[in-house]
Amino acid sequence: MIVTKSFDFVNNKKAMRSFLFLSLLILYSFTLSNWHYNRLNRLLNKNEDKCLTVALKIQKWDKYDPIPYLFASVVYLKKIEDSHSIRKKYMLITKSFRQAEKFEKLSNSEQKEFELWKQNKLNLDTISASLQIELKENHYPDLARAIARNRKKMSFNRVKYEEILIVAEKTDNASTNSGSAPSVENKMIGTEFFGMPTGTERIPSYSEAEEQKMLKLINSERKKLGLAPLELEENLVYAARYHSYDMATQNYFDHASYDRLNNKLIKVGKTFDRIKFFYSDRFVNSENIAAGNSDAESTYRQWYNSPGHYKNMFNPSSRKCGIAVCYDPNSTFKYYWTFCSAQ
Predict the structure, then answer these.
(1) What's the CA gap between 89 and 80, in Å, rounded?
(2) For 51, which DSSP code?
(3) Residue 268 three-state SS
(4) pLDDT in tens, 202-239
């Protein structure tokens, strides 16, 4: 009995030592990972090149820590902004993808909730989609397909939204003829768009009648000025409606595109990059936006009295345009207008 008890005690002691060692190892790894995050985050804000160098060094001697892969992905993606070579952009986006895939594979659920990771994933989604189009247009189909494969690995879907629900609503002819805006109740119900558009989004108009009035007001003045009238171009209209809808549902007011995450706005794309997804036939000249008025005439006066907006409406080289108004009762300004023109 004594021998048996002594044997059990020895085994229990060994097990306890193993448990304590494993616990200390886990604690050490967790502490070291936090230290890596804080260090790399400071470097990212001060010196991106040094941040990348340190991140790659950490990967060599601690290949299971996900943190350096996150920061390397972020820096590679940032470098694309300063690159003018399409092949260099492709190389950088590929490296960013590889680092991001490593982070996803090694990170835990808490690390995947980092704001830096969420923002980087959105940026990687948007920039890779834009670069894929650029590669196609510049006759690099193989490189475009390679990016498509990387995007598939990351399970990217640029537009993550539920199908837009349209509640049918009939507007009586009397209210339309009188010039008043149609009733806003249940005109459009939907969820937000995230990332840049695909160019296939077909947002319905809040009021086609008011959009047509805006076109008539602009063309009436263009005629007085001796300018050719503008024609509505279908894809430019969809581009305008997308932006008005996005501003309304994400609750922001800006020419650039933003996503709202945790009540914080994150920039996901530039104005003309967004429009290009819908319309790339000719050069796009301008974009006007306005908010707060339901009717075309009030919005037109806002633009007419602003030198920059006036210049965009009466650009002699413009021939086509898109006009849109969208409404969201939960947004700051309720009504959001977009006008874009092209040669």
Answers:
(1) 5
(2) H
(3) strand
(4) 888 889 999 999 999 999 999 999 999 999 999 999 99
Element (DSSP H or E) covering residue 287: strand 284-291
290 contacts 303 by C-beta, under 8 angstroms: yes
Cα 180 to Cα 193: distance, rounded to the nearest angstrom: 29
Q: How far is Cα 144 from Cα 102, in angstroms, rounded to an integer?
A: 22
What does the DSSP assignment read for 100-112?
A: HHHHHHH--TTGG
Give the model's pLDDT for residue 83. Answer: 83
Q: What amino acid is encoded at 145 in this protein?
A: R
User: Three-state DSSP class for 84?
Assistant: coil
Residue the block writes with tokens 């260099």: 88
> Against a cut of 0.70, is the pTM above it?
no
CB 275 within 8 A of CB 287: yes
CA 278/CA 296 separation, integer angstroms: 24
Nearest to residue 320, comparing CAs of 235, 243, 256?
235
Report residue 205 as tokens. 């108009």
Distance CA 279, CA 7 (A): 79
Helix (H, G, I), strand (E, B) or coil at 336: strand
Chain centroid offset of residue 290 CA: 21
